[in-house]
Amino acid sequence: MVETIVWKDNQVVMIDQRKLPLQEKYIICKDYRSVIRAIKNLVIRGAPAIGVAAAMGVALGALKIRTSNKERFRAKLDAICRDIVQARPTAANLAWAVERMKQVADQASRRGVKGVKSRLVKEAQKMLDEDIAINRRMGRYGQRLLRNGSRVLTHCNAGALATGGYGTALGVVRAAVKAGKRIEVFADETRPFLQGARLTAWEMKELNIPVTVITDNSAGYFMQQGRVDAVIVGADRIAENGDVANKIGTYMVAVLAKTHKIPFYVAAPLSTIDASIKSGKEIPIEQRGEKEVTRFLGRQATPNGVPAENPAFDVTPHRYISAIITEKGVITPPFKAKIRRLFASG
What we know:
Layout: E1 5-8, E2 11-15, E3 26-29, H1 32-40, H2 47-64, H3 70-85, H4 92-107, H5 112-142, E4 151-154, H6 169-178, E5 184-188, H7 195-206, E6 211-214, H8 219-224, E7 230-233, E8 237-239, E9 244-247, H9 250-259, E10 264-267, E11 273-274, H10 291-294, E12 295-296, E13 299-300, E14 313-316, E15 323-326, E16 329-331, H11 336-344
Parallel strand pairs: 4-5, 4-7, 5-6, 7-10, 8-11, 10-15
Antiparallel strand pairs: 1-2, 2-3, 8-9, 9-14, 12-13, 15-16
Helix pairs in contact: 1-2, 2-3, 2-4, 2-5, 3-4, 4-5, 5-6
Protein backbone atom coordinates (compact mmCIF):
# COMPACT_ATOMS: atom_id res chain seq x y z
CA MET A 1 0.00 0.00 0.00
CA VAL A 2 1.12 3.57 -0.66
CA GLU A 3 1.64 6.01 2.19
CA THR A 4 -1.20 8.48 2.69
CA ILE A 5 0.94 11.28 4.10
CA VAL A 6 4.59 11.68 5.14
CA TRP A 7 6.89 14.38 6.44
CA LYS A 8 9.96 14.58 4.21
CA ASP A 9 12.72 17.22 4.03
CA ASN A 10 10.56 19.70 5.96
CA GLN A 11 7.74 19.29 3.48
CA VAL A 12 4.43 17.42 3.63
CA VAL A 13 3.95 14.82 0.90
CA MET A 14 0.51 13.29 0.38
CA ILE A 15 -1.03 11.11 -2.29
CA ASP A 16 -3.66 12.96 -4.32
CA GLN A 17 -6.79 10.95 -3.57
CA ARG A 18 -8.70 12.78 -6.30
CA LYS A 19 -6.66 10.92 -8.91
CA LEU A 20 -7.01 7.39 -7.57
CA PRO A 21 -7.43 4.66 -8.69
CA LEU A 22 -6.32 5.59 -12.20
CA GLN A 23 -3.25 7.60 -11.25
CA GLU A 24 -0.88 7.63 -8.27
CA LYS A 25 0.10 11.28 -8.04
CA TYR A 26 1.69 13.01 -5.06
CA ILE A 27 1.24 16.57 -3.85
CA ILE A 28 4.11 18.35 -2.10
CA CYS A 29 3.08 21.00 0.40
CA LYS A 30 5.83 23.51 1.13
CA ASP A 31 3.81 25.82 3.39
CA TYR A 32 0.80 25.55 5.66
CA ARG A 33 -1.52 27.27 3.18
CA SER A 34 -0.95 24.47 0.67
CA VAL A 35 -1.86 21.96 3.41
CA ILE A 36 -5.11 23.85 3.98
CA ARG A 37 -5.86 23.79 0.25
CA ALA A 38 -5.16 20.06 0.14
CA ILE A 39 -7.62 19.48 2.99
CA LYS A 40 -10.31 21.71 1.50
CA ASN A 41 -9.96 20.27 -2.00
CA LEU A 42 -10.02 16.63 -0.82
CA VAL A 43 -6.48 15.82 -1.87
CA ILE A 44 -6.46 14.25 1.58
CA ARG A 45 -9.66 13.27 3.41
CA GLY A 46 -10.86 11.09 6.26
CA ALA A 47 -10.94 12.43 9.80
CA PRO A 48 -7.77 10.78 11.17
CA ALA A 49 -5.77 11.65 8.02
CA ILE A 50 -6.99 15.24 8.22
CA GLY A 51 -5.83 15.34 11.84
CA VAL A 52 -2.33 14.24 10.86
CA ALA A 53 -2.30 16.72 7.98
CA ALA A 54 -3.38 19.51 10.31
CA ALA A 55 -0.56 18.70 12.76
CA MET A 56 1.97 18.69 9.93
CA GLY A 57 0.49 21.94 8.65
CA VAL A 58 1.08 23.57 12.04
CA ALA A 59 4.66 22.30 12.09
CA LEU A 60 5.24 23.50 8.53
CA GLY A 61 3.78 26.90 9.35
CA ALA A 62 5.96 27.20 12.44
CA LEU A 63 9.12 26.53 10.43
CA LYS A 64 8.29 29.42 8.09
CA ILE A 65 7.84 32.01 10.85
CA ARG A 66 10.78 34.43 10.65
CA THR A 67 11.25 35.78 14.14
CA SER A 68 13.19 34.84 17.23
CA ASN A 69 10.87 36.80 19.50
CA LYS A 70 8.75 34.32 21.47
CA GLU A 71 5.70 36.55 21.73
CA ARG A 72 5.63 37.45 18.03
CA PHE A 73 6.27 33.82 17.12
CA ARG A 74 3.36 32.64 19.23
CA ALA A 75 1.00 35.24 17.82
CA LYS A 76 1.83 34.12 14.28
CA LEU A 77 1.55 30.45 15.25
CA ASP A 78 -1.89 31.01 16.78
CA ALA A 79 -3.03 32.71 13.56
CA ILE A 80 -1.81 29.71 11.55
CA CYS A 81 -3.69 27.38 13.88
CA ARG A 82 -6.91 29.36 13.45
CA ASP A 83 -6.61 29.16 9.67
CA ILE A 84 -6.05 25.41 9.72
CA VAL A 85 -8.99 24.72 12.06
CA GLN A 86 -11.33 26.44 9.60
CA ALA A 87 -10.30 24.18 6.70
CA ARG A 88 -13.16 21.71 7.28
CA PRO A 89 -15.67 22.08 10.14
CA THR A 90 -17.09 18.59 10.75
CA ALA A 91 -14.07 16.35 11.41
CA ALA A 92 -13.24 16.47 15.12
CA ASN A 93 -9.70 15.21 14.57
CA LEU A 94 -8.64 18.41 12.83
CA ALA A 95 -9.33 20.71 15.78
CA TRP A 96 -8.08 18.05 18.20
CA ALA A 97 -4.74 17.83 16.38
CA VAL A 98 -4.28 21.59 16.25
CA GLU A 99 -5.06 21.92 19.94
CA ARG A 100 -2.54 19.20 20.76
CA MET A 101 0.12 21.04 18.75
CA LYS A 102 -0.64 24.28 20.61
CA GLN A 103 -0.22 22.47 23.92
CA VAL A 104 3.15 21.12 22.75
CA ALA A 105 4.19 24.66 21.82
CA ASP A 106 3.23 25.80 25.32
CA GLN A 107 5.26 23.04 26.94
CA ALA A 108 8.32 23.75 24.79
CA SER A 109 8.21 27.54 25.07
CA ARG A 110 11.10 27.64 27.55
CA ARG A 111 13.35 26.23 24.81
CA GLY A 112 12.94 29.34 22.69
CA VAL A 113 11.57 29.66 19.17
CA LYS A 114 14.05 27.22 17.64
CA GLY A 115 13.24 24.61 20.27
CA VAL A 116 9.49 25.01 19.77
CA LYS A 117 9.84 24.52 16.01
CA SER A 118 11.86 21.34 16.50
CA ARG A 119 9.39 20.00 19.03
CA LEU A 120 6.40 20.66 16.76
CA VAL A 121 7.99 18.78 13.86
CA LYS A 122 8.68 15.79 16.10
CA GLU A 123 5.14 15.87 17.50
CA ALA A 124 3.55 15.87 14.04
CA GLN A 125 5.60 12.83 13.05
CA LYS A 126 4.74 11.18 16.35
CA MET A 127 1.02 11.70 15.69
CA LEU A 128 1.34 9.91 12.36
CA ASP A 129 3.02 6.92 14.02
CA GLU A 130 0.45 6.92 16.82
CA ASP A 131 -2.44 6.96 14.37
CA ILE A 132 -1.20 3.84 12.60
CA ALA A 133 -0.68 2.04 15.91
CA ILE A 134 -4.15 3.08 17.11
CA ASN A 135 -5.74 1.77 13.93
CA ARG A 136 -4.06 -1.58 14.35
CA ARG A 137 -5.36 -1.85 17.92
CA MET A 138 -8.87 -0.97 16.77
CA GLY A 139 -8.60 -3.64 14.12
CA ARG A 140 -7.67 -6.31 16.67
CA TYR A 141 -10.63 -5.39 18.89
CA GLY A 142 -13.11 -5.01 16.05
CA GLN A 143 -12.28 -8.16 14.13
CA ARG A 144 -13.78 -10.21 16.96
CA LEU A 145 -17.19 -8.92 15.87
CA LEU A 146 -16.87 -10.55 12.46
CA ARG A 147 -17.30 -14.27 11.91
CA ASN A 148 -15.57 -16.28 9.25
CA GLY A 149 -17.39 -15.79 5.97
CA SER A 150 -18.85 -12.39 6.88
CA ARG A 151 -20.05 -10.14 4.08
CA VAL A 152 -19.37 -6.59 5.20
CA LEU A 153 -20.94 -3.45 3.76
CA THR A 154 -18.98 -0.20 4.01
CA HIS A 155 -19.90 3.38 3.16
CA CYS A 156 -17.29 5.92 2.06
CA ASN A 157 -13.63 5.05 2.62
CA ALA A 158 -12.28 4.38 6.09
CA GLY A 159 -9.11 2.58 5.14
CA ALA A 160 -5.43 3.49 5.08
CA LEU A 161 -6.18 6.43 2.79
CA ALA A 162 -8.52 7.98 5.37
CA THR A 163 -5.93 7.68 8.15
CA GLY A 164 -2.21 7.80 8.74
CA GLY A 165 -2.22 4.17 7.67
CA TYR A 166 -4.01 0.81 8.05
CA GLY A 167 -7.54 2.18 8.47
CA THR A 168 -10.44 2.30 10.92
CA ALA A 169 -13.43 0.43 9.44
CA LEU A 170 -11.26 -1.25 6.82
CA GLY A 171 -8.64 -1.82 9.50
CA VAL A 172 -11.18 -4.09 11.17
CA VAL A 173 -11.62 -5.98 7.90
CA ARG A 174 -7.86 -6.26 7.44
CA ALA A 175 -7.41 -7.56 10.99
CA ALA A 176 -10.15 -10.15 10.47
CA VAL A 177 -8.45 -11.39 7.31
CA LYS A 178 -5.12 -11.49 9.13
CA ALA A 179 -6.80 -13.60 11.81
CA GLY A 180 -7.62 -16.17 9.13
CA LYS A 181 -11.23 -15.21 8.45
CA ARG A 182 -12.71 -15.09 4.99
CA ILE A 183 -14.28 -11.66 4.51
CA GLU A 184 -16.09 -10.20 1.51
CA VAL A 185 -16.63 -6.44 1.20
CA PHE A 186 -19.49 -4.56 -0.44
CA ALA A 187 -18.39 -0.97 -1.08
CA ASP A 188 -21.09 1.66 -1.53
CA GLU A 189 -19.93 3.94 -4.34
CA THR A 190 -20.51 6.98 -2.06
CA ARG A 191 -21.62 9.85 -4.24
CA PRO A 192 -20.65 12.46 -5.17
CA PHE A 193 -16.88 11.96 -4.59
CA LEU A 194 -17.04 8.16 -5.07
CA GLN A 195 -14.76 7.34 -2.14
CA GLY A 196 -16.12 3.80 -2.02
CA ALA A 197 -15.96 3.08 -5.73
CA ARG A 198 -12.53 4.63 -6.18
CA LEU A 199 -10.69 4.35 -2.88
CA THR A 200 -12.19 1.47 -0.87
CA ALA A 201 -12.28 -0.77 -3.94
CA TRP A 202 -8.68 0.16 -4.78
CA GLU A 203 -7.44 -0.55 -1.25
CA MET A 204 -9.20 -3.90 -1.06
CA LYS A 205 -7.90 -4.93 -4.47
CA GLU A 206 -4.36 -4.02 -3.43
CA LEU A 207 -4.77 -6.22 -0.34
CA ASN A 208 -6.39 -9.11 -2.27
CA ILE A 209 -9.57 -8.86 -0.19
CA PRO A 210 -12.70 -9.66 -2.25
CA VAL A 211 -14.66 -6.47 -2.92
CA THR A 212 -17.74 -5.58 -4.97
CA VAL A 213 -18.80 -2.00 -5.69
CA ILE A 214 -22.52 -1.30 -5.42
CA THR A 215 -24.54 1.84 -6.06
CA ASP A 216 -25.57 3.86 -3.02
CA ASN A 217 -29.25 3.20 -3.69
CA SER A 218 -28.83 -0.59 -3.82
CA ALA A 219 -27.67 -1.19 -0.23
CA GLY A 220 -31.23 -2.03 0.85
CA TYR A 221 -31.56 -4.52 -1.98
CA PHE A 222 -28.51 -6.50 -0.88
CA MET A 223 -29.66 -6.44 2.74
CA GLN A 224 -33.11 -7.64 1.69
CA GLN A 225 -31.47 -10.47 -0.24
CA GLY A 226 -29.63 -11.60 2.90
CA ARG A 227 -26.25 -10.84 1.41
CA VAL A 228 -24.98 -8.45 4.11
CA ASP A 229 -23.93 -9.75 7.54
CA ALA A 230 -22.53 -6.55 9.05
CA VAL A 231 -22.01 -2.87 8.30
CA ILE A 232 -18.81 -1.10 9.37
CA VAL A 233 -18.17 2.60 8.84
CA GLY A 234 -15.76 5.20 10.12
CA ALA A 235 -16.69 8.54 11.67
CA ASP A 236 -15.79 12.21 11.44
CA ARG A 237 -17.20 13.22 14.81
CA ILE A 238 -18.94 11.35 17.62
CA ALA A 239 -21.00 13.16 20.24
CA GLU A 240 -21.04 12.36 23.95
CA ASN A 241 -24.24 10.31 23.59
CA GLY A 242 -22.88 8.20 20.72
CA ASP A 243 -24.48 10.05 17.79
CA VAL A 244 -22.13 9.76 14.80
CA ALA A 245 -21.39 12.15 11.95
CA ASN A 246 -20.04 10.38 8.90
CA LYS A 247 -20.13 10.72 5.12
CA ILE A 248 -23.52 11.67 3.71
CA GLY A 249 -25.62 8.54 3.18
CA THR A 250 -24.44 6.78 6.33
CA TYR A 251 -27.72 7.53 8.11
CA MET A 252 -29.72 5.79 5.37
CA VAL A 253 -27.50 2.72 5.59
CA ALA A 254 -27.91 2.62 9.38
CA VAL A 255 -31.72 2.80 9.14
CA LEU A 256 -31.71 0.00 6.57
CA ALA A 257 -29.41 -2.13 8.74
CA LYS A 258 -31.70 -1.64 11.75
CA THR A 259 -34.74 -2.64 9.67
CA HIS A 260 -33.03 -5.82 8.50
CA LYS A 261 -31.55 -6.62 11.94
CA ILE A 262 -27.98 -6.30 10.68
CA PRO A 263 -25.35 -5.05 13.15
CA PHE A 264 -24.09 -1.55 12.39
CA TYR A 265 -20.59 -0.85 13.72
CA VAL A 266 -18.59 2.38 13.87
CA ALA A 267 -14.78 2.27 14.08
CA ALA A 268 -13.09 5.46 15.22
CA PRO A 269 -10.24 6.59 17.48
CA LEU A 270 -10.90 8.51 20.67
CA SER A 271 -9.70 11.67 18.93
CA THR A 272 -12.90 11.52 16.84
CA ILE A 273 -15.11 11.63 19.95
CA ASP A 274 -16.09 15.16 20.91
CA ALA A 275 -17.26 14.80 24.50
CA SER A 276 -17.87 18.56 24.66
CA ILE A 277 -21.10 18.20 22.66
CA LYS A 278 -24.11 16.35 23.99
CA SER A 279 -25.66 15.08 20.77
CA GLY A 280 -25.35 15.01 17.01
CA LYS A 281 -27.62 18.05 16.75
CA GLU A 282 -24.62 20.16 17.76
CA ILE A 283 -22.28 18.79 15.09
CA PRO A 284 -21.61 21.32 12.30
CA ILE A 285 -22.30 19.85 8.87
CA GLU A 286 -20.03 21.00 6.07
CA GLN A 287 -21.84 22.20 2.95
CA ARG A 288 -19.74 21.75 -0.18
CA GLY A 289 -20.03 23.31 -3.63
CA GLU A 290 -22.85 22.28 -5.93
CA LYS A 291 -20.53 21.51 -8.84
CA GLU A 292 -19.50 18.29 -7.09
CA VAL A 293 -23.10 17.18 -7.69
CA THR A 294 -23.99 18.88 -10.97
CA ARG A 295 -20.86 17.79 -12.81
CA PHE A 296 -19.51 14.29 -13.44
CA LEU A 297 -16.10 13.49 -14.93
CA GLY A 298 -15.71 17.14 -15.77
CA ARG A 299 -18.99 17.43 -17.65
CA GLN A 300 -22.30 19.03 -16.78
CA ALA A 301 -24.73 16.28 -15.69
CA THR A 302 -27.79 18.32 -14.68
CA PRO A 303 -29.93 20.94 -16.46
CA ASN A 304 -28.51 24.47 -16.48
CA GLY A 305 -30.05 26.67 -13.83
CA VAL A 306 -31.15 23.81 -11.55
CA PRO A 307 -29.53 24.22 -8.11
CA ALA A 308 -28.05 21.39 -6.06
CA GLU A 309 -27.40 20.97 -2.36
CA ASN A 310 -24.33 19.09 -1.22
CA PRO A 311 -24.04 18.35 2.51
CA ALA A 312 -20.83 16.38 3.04
CA PHE A 313 -22.02 14.53 6.14
CA ASP A 314 -25.11 13.36 8.00
CA VAL A 315 -25.68 12.29 11.59
CA THR A 316 -26.66 8.76 12.59
CA PRO A 317 -28.47 8.73 15.96
CA HIS A 318 -26.95 6.40 18.54
CA ARG A 319 -30.04 4.18 18.63
CA TYR A 320 -29.03 2.76 15.23
CA ILE A 321 -25.49 1.86 16.29
CA SER A 322 -24.70 -1.63 17.58
CA ALA A 323 -21.18 -0.85 18.81
CA ILE A 324 -18.37 1.69 18.60
CA ILE A 325 -14.89 0.26 18.10
CA THR A 326 -12.02 2.28 19.61
CA GLU A 327 -8.36 1.73 20.42
CA LYS A 328 -9.42 1.02 24.01
CA GLY A 329 -11.97 -1.61 23.11
CA VAL A 330 -15.53 -2.05 21.89
CA ILE A 331 -18.41 -0.28 23.61
CA THR A 332 -22.10 -1.06 23.19
CA PRO A 333 -25.24 0.93 24.06
CA PRO A 334 -25.90 2.86 26.18
CA PHE A 335 -22.86 4.85 25.09
CA LYS A 336 -22.76 8.00 27.22
CA ALA A 337 -21.36 6.59 30.45
CA LYS A 338 -19.04 4.22 28.59
CA ILE A 339 -17.60 7.05 26.51
CA ARG A 340 -16.87 8.95 29.70
CA ARG A 341 -15.10 5.93 31.13
CA LEU A 342 -12.97 5.60 28.00
CA PHE A 343 -11.56 9.07 28.56
CA ALA A 344 -11.27 8.62 32.31
CA SER A 345 -9.22 5.44 31.95
CA GLY A 346 -6.18 7.45 30.74
